[in-house]
What we know:
single chain, alpha+beta, five-stranded antiparallel β-sheet, two-stranded antiparallel sheet, globular
Amino acid sequence: xxxxxxxxxxxxxxxxxxxxxxxxxxxxxxxxxxxxxxxxxxxxxxxxxxxxxxxxxxxxxxxxxxxxxxxxxxxxxxxxxxxxxxxxxxxxxxxxxxxxxxxxxxxxxxxxxxxxxxxxxxxxxxxxx
Length: 129
């Protein structure tokens, strides 16, 4: 699906896991990385659009919602001088709460369950649109 939508991929083996990174040929930015290792299978989505559509996460499966809530909070929320000055954060609403997360450290989404994989396909389609 990612290759058909204008991405190229690279493979790597780091820290006891295989990583398949998909980069948009058009924007030259990483869209997602599939990771398989001893800790399980998950996809790291570098979401560019999660903060543009609050309703998008409303129908996410519970595992995905929990992974998003557990994502890295942005240090700039409490200290504007924290982190890299060029670092961007994202703000979005999930289950009636506002979150500010680090764009580059999120989101590690589980993909073991069929329900989770189906939602991830929808998410990635949304990201590549």
